[in-house]
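Key idea: predict the complex, not the pieces.
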Amino acid sequence: MNRAALHRGLTMSRRSLLLAGGVSLGLAACGVKGQQKPPPTQQEITSYWAGQSRHGKLNFANWPLYMDDKRTQLKQFTQATGTTVKYQEVIQDDPSWFGRIQPQLAAGQSIGYDLMVMTNGIELTKMQLLGYLVPLDHSRLPNFAQYAGPTYKKEIFDPGNLYTIPWTSGITGIGYNPKYVKKEITSIADLWDPAYAGKVGMFSATDELGYFGMYKLGINPASAGPADWKKSAATLKQQRDKGIVRAYYDQTYIKSLANGDIWITMAWSGDIFQQNVSEGTGLKFVIPKEGGSLWTDNMCIPLTAENPVDALQLMDFFYQPKIAAGLAEYINYVTPVPATQAVIRAQAAAATGDDQDSLTEIADSPLVYPSATDYARLHSFRPLTPTEDRTFQDIFQPIIQG
Amino acid sequence: MNRLRATLSPYFLVLPGGLWLAIFFVIPAVFMLSLSLQTGDVVSGFSPTWSFSNYTNAIGLYHTQLLRSLAYGLAATILAIVLAYPMAYWIAFHGGTRKSTYLLLMLLPFFVSFVLRTTAWSFLLSDNGILLAPLKSWGLLPADFHVLATAPAVVLGLTYNWLPFMVLPIYLALDRVDHRIVEAGRDLYAGRTAIFTKIILPLSLPGVFAGVIMTFVPASSDFVNSQVLGGTANTMIGNVIQSQYFVASNYPIASVLSFTLMALLLIGIFAYARALGTKDIMEAAAR
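Result:
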């Protein structure tokens, strides 16, 4: 089967494509047909990849601060394979990224990128359900098979890594500025502490926010339903109405935390580490004792990609322990390649002075290599069906939009 | 033949603008109206169900943000008049040969991107930023004083971002004031106050009217200022529409709110025009 046939198989009829494209432009007069597609068969996957060839170039859309400014790993890739990579830091958050690419994918047009990184969450689930992602050919991912940590081969949001393999994982916990917060923070309840009224930051992403409300109340999010969500929303609303929350932040929270606009906030582990390294701010990060969130940013190939073979090759390249170690040293989030710890230790042993210290710090960091106890406290976002997601959004959206 | 051409030519003249409006306003508006009555979700699809309950639901959920947006828009508009009128007055009557230089100076900041300008304000107004930090260290302000994440911050941002849309129409109206009328007023022993209230102000009202529309409408539907400068209690309806559309992919609710906002703005403007005497104002503005 050629690519066009896979298009038909994986996506939808031309007619519903047009309608779907129309809706996004606000141009649909009549109803929009359902676009949900069953997962592709093995035969469809094989024949899709059989019809593809290498082009020696690809476009990679990623989040800021996910690779050093010199793009070291991409240069190594070009050296090893001759393939050139155009790398752009265009993804700021999943909803707006999904909003941006969805109309083009619905219309069957190229989004201009062959490889992109999306967090597990409703947008990624929608991408899977709508058939907007290319199913991966695991026979071309030998490094992933050999080196990926066991946790990352059985992610609940993408069983069998059908569409995605992890770029990096990360922890959502509490970040604080010890210049203003004098005591040691250990509990989620500290985000509700009236002593920090007006200086508390919370995340505007509804899953992040809703899960923190559930941790505070001791609800296990894996089995939580609408009744629990409502309890969580009630406690978050109370926190807001008492004037404790200053604002609901996206990525911008880190600047506000560094310059003192907020003192204590929901935070992503790697941001705090990177901020401290780049500007010497002594910010702190903790996984609250009640629990924190473990999310995974995943590499995936949009269905309309022009260079899928090159993209797949690059995805696998990132799983070589040496390459993955280079990324982990820069990103400082949880790496999906455990073998990197030995690589970084070896590099530390060979290095001297400050380099040695910082490499040792990374190799020993529980934020890059969480312990088993840490993993036990961390929860992944449960994938929601679109109907569940509607309910979830209806419960948590009104909090952010006070 | 000539008569036919004479009858038809006005229609030809209005054709480009009319088509533009039809394609980019009327058609989307009709589709949006249809969307606002549908139910469903982005994966299983939306279907037309004539669910007018969308309107009651959405307005029930978000009436606070709707009213807040109108209030912020109104506050920003009034503030803009207060700032813009003296500016425009000064440029029109005392600008001399440098009028266009002054206008350019006023417009200069607006050559920079809208989002960047607003972000610059968030730097300036930051709790420990260059404005508040000195005032706090001199003890003029309490340590926990902050401007960001408050309603005034959002209103100030809105005012700043739409100020030129107020200055320009007022300036144009003032610049067209016939100086012979002012002289006539003086000859008849009118004082400065009387000349202003009886001659200049009434003649400049069409400019103020145009400025109010051009400021109030976009300011009320803005979402950037409240996102960058506001806090938890400053969300405007623009933010809700944006996140309903992009985050929740709930196109019907987003359409409902857009329509409601449009209706509220139209009612507001017609009421305002009626209060000022629409006909006179529109005619004067068109002159």
